[in-house]
Amino acid sequence: MGDQMQFIVEKLNQEPFRKNYNLISFDSLESVQLLQLLNDVLGEIDPKHAVDIREELPEQTAKRMLSLLGILKYKPPGSVSDLSAFRQGLVTGSKPVIHPLLHWLLQRTSELKKRAYLARFLVKLEVPAEFLQEDTVADTNRQYEELMEAFKNLHKEYEQLKISGLSTAEIRRDISAMEEEKDQLVKRVERLKKRVETVQNHQRMLEIARQLRLEKEREESLAQQKQEQKSQLFHAKQRLQRAQLQLKEMQDAVADSKPESLMKKLEEEINFNSYLVTEKMPRELESKKASVYLLQKVVAEPAMTQSDLTALQSEINEVNAQMNQLIEKRMMKYEPTDSKFSMYRQQASIISRKKEAKAEELQAAKEEMSMLERQMQQRSSQAHELEGSEIMTEDEFKQYVNKLRSKNTLYKKKRLEIAEITAEYGILQRTEELLKQRHEAIQQQLQMIEEKKGISGYSYTQEELERVSAVKSEMDEMKGQTLDNMSEMVKKLNAVVAEKKASLAPVIKELRQLRQKCQELTQECDEKKIQYDSCAAGLESNRSALEQEVKGLLEECAQEESNYRYIHCMKRTLEVQLQRAKAEMKAYVSPDPQQRRKAIREQYTRMILEQENLGKKLREKQKVVRESHGPNMKQRKMWQDFEQLMECKRECFQKQQNQAAIGQVIQEGGKDRLVL
């Protein structure tokens, strides 16, 4: 609890609340201040609830908060029976109710803001079925549902874009980069076209290249189809294996069984399924519907006060008293023949419960068997994917075991060879170490001899000179080869450049003419574009004016149509009322008594007379009861006194019997002593 309060105080001291509380000041808040603080937190989640609770009634505040908490899917701690206590605590501002609620709200404020925002648009407005009979209301409701679905889709796309992490700047950069790549590709294609045009039979070569591309695409599609057909073949083989397995199981079952046993199994299965369909499932469905109805009724009830709880408790006590009275009456009317029926009922109920339990066990066993079959299929498919082979039969498994045995012998031989090679490797490694040691000793002796002769470092210098001379000779050879290659490459490049210049000279001349023509066409295109823009602007303005006019006419038409429908409905209502009034007048004026009896006035007159006669009889009965009340109460008092008198006599008689028995025991004990 202390950690919870510490968390609440820390969150309230931060943005956007900034309350500057500590544990003592927060714990000393009154109920009204706690409710206002809770309302401020709810107002931060949903701005519609940012109000002053002093300006509204407590029932309105509780109803508003409960509706928002229902939208936010808050579950109060405790069982369902504690909901009334939660509502009462919310109305009174109880700390055990407000503190957990504040802790829950402050833990997930951002998530609850999002949920409250979505609830403004996704909580569906229920329209009664009788209103949906009108076309206008039905069309509006359908448009409302379509807009709700469109909002759901747009919100999902928005969330996906937020998760993807793309920003407008990155998108613009990508677009600009793609445009640059497009321009480069266009230029490259133009260059390639110009280069290809100079080649002989370029059209035929392009056609051949196009056919090659089409054939490659066809090859890819055929490969994809081949892969799909392979997967279909694999699935078909799996289905065939399952069918063969089922066939084998059925053959095994048929081989050891008779038609009578098969018919018996089928009858048992049919009886079990019929029991599930006719008895078990409907009973479970009814229980689920009843529980759902009770839960909906509990949810639909408004906030309950203490007076409502006391009234409900009194009603429960009255119903319990009535039940006890009925049980006592039944016990008084108990007959011996009912005991047999009750015994049979108990046995039937026990059998039905056992039957339900066995049916549930059988259903669970079937579900477990189906789950195990699915797992087996998944394992077989995984094994096929990993190993690329299907499940082996018995003969294939034997062949596989024989192969493993031959491989095992081969493995043992190779293992022996590896052991021999390892031993030889160890010997060679030891020989290498000994040679290295001898080499180091010889080097040390050589250095000592060089020092004695006064030419220390001679051997090392000789080795370095030999190595450097070898490297220098290699570098000289590489340089010579590189220079030869470079000279040949320069000659080739010069020849290629000369050829390209000769071939591009006529193309450059044509290009200059085409550039001039392109400039002229560009100027003409700009002029035409200016004319087109001005004409399009004028047409766009005319179109917008016409659209506004059409929109106004459509709205006026819809308004007139709704007025017409309203007047038509009112006319039909008035016609029905007028027709009823005419029928009433006709029945009332009619000389036929049967017709007059059908008149509403006659019916109400007859009902009034019946009620007056009934009231008169009830008043007479009340008078008789009042007159006989005093003597009856007196007689009841006399019977109670008589009952007390008889009870006293019964107690005195029992006491006398007990005293007489004690005296008799004492006398018998005295006689025994005298005899002794």
From TrEMBL:
Keywords recorded for this protein, A-Z: Acetylation, Cell projection, Cilium, Cilium biogenesis/degradation, Coiled coil, Cytoplasm, Cytoskeleton, Differentiation, Phosphoprotein, Spermatogenesis
Residue ranges annotated as coiled coil are 137-253, 309-382, 504-563
Gene Ontology biological-process annotations: cell differentiation; cilium assembly; intraciliary transport; spermatogenesis
> Which residue ranges does the record assign to the IFT81 calponin homology domain?
3-126
Pfam assignment, any one: IFT81_CH
Report whether Cytoplasm shows up as a keyword of the record: yes
Q: Does the keyword Glycoprotein apply?
A: no
Q: What is its main location?
A: cytoplasm
Provide a Gene Ontology MF annotation, just one. tubulin binding
One GO cellular component term noted in the UniProt record for this chain: ciliary basal body
What is its subcellular localisation? Answer: Cytoplasm, Cytoskeleton, Cilium basal body
UniProt lists the family membership as follows: Belongs to the IFT81 family.
Give a short account of what the protein does.
Component of the intraflagellar transport (IFT) complex B: together with IFT74, forms a tubulin-binding module that specifically mediates transport of tubulin within the cilium. Binds tubulin via its CH (calponin-homology)-like region. Required for ciliogenesis. Required for proper regulation of SHH signaling. Plays an important role during spermatogenesis by modulating the assembly and elongation of the sperm flagella.
Protein name as annotated: Intraflagellar transport protein 81 homolog
